[in-house]
Write a structure and sequence with these properties.
By secondary structure, the protein is of the alpha+beta class. It contains 6 helices and 7 strands, in the order H-H-E-E-H-E-E-E-E-H-E-H-H. The chain is 33% helix and 22% strand. It starts with 14 loop residues before the first helix and ends in a 16-residue tail after the last helix. The chain crosses the membrane at residues 28-46.
Length: 180
């Protein structure tokens, strides 16, 4: 007697396993995110549209716009060239000292030369000047002249006796990151 065994029917993979369902289109709220970004951008970048007024059949700047122009032009005429120096001997931040981040300054030694159109309070208001340093206005006048004076003083800093007595003289004052 022979025993016959029936071969099992061929295995067919289940379609549910092999075939992944078609991806459903995402109907998320991406458009809402784009709209929100556009609204925020517009809120911070759109100026007041009342900058023109109609006058005598033509156009003129609004009084607010004229006032802003005069204020900004005035800043160019009343600029300051200043020096920040050590009022107390001590260590102060140095941006030109290579790997060292601090430099010792004696009383009266220059930390930085600068010029500003907006004055000390608006220039250094919230940030402030490091403790122990003092701001002194050296010249008030045309902004171009202030910048020229600043540049001359920064370049000539290398020749100051306080700088030449250092073991490694600096190219510019310790508080000036660049030559202007």
């Amino acid at each position: 007697m022979t025993i016959r065994t029936l071969s099992p029917p061929p295995l067919e993979p289940k379609k549910e396993i092999l075939e992944s369902p078609a991806p459903k289109p995402r109907r998320g709220l991406w458009w809402l995110v784009v709209l929100a970004i556009a609204v925020v951008y517009a809120a911070f970048n759109v100026e007041d549209f009342d900058f023109l007024i109609e006058k005598d059949g033509g156009y003129d700047l609004s009084p607010q716009r004229k006032e802003k122009l005069q204020k900004e032009l005035g800043e160019y005429d009343e600029a300051e060239q200043y020096v920040i120096f050590a009022a107390e001997a001590g260590y102060y931040p140095c941006y030109n000292c290579g790997k060292q981040t601090l430099i010792y300054l004696n009383v009266g030694e220059v930390w930085k030369y600068g010029s500003t159109r907006i004055g000390k309070n608006r220039r250094y208001g919230n940030v402030g000047i490091p403790l122990g340093l003092t701001y002194l206005t050296e010249y008030v006048g045309d902004y171009t002249i202030c910048q020229k004076l600043e540049k001359i003083k920064i370049y000539n800093y290398a020749l100051l006796p306080e700088n030449l007595k250092r073991s490694t003289p600096l190219i510019r004052p310790p508080g000036n990151k660049v030559d202007f």
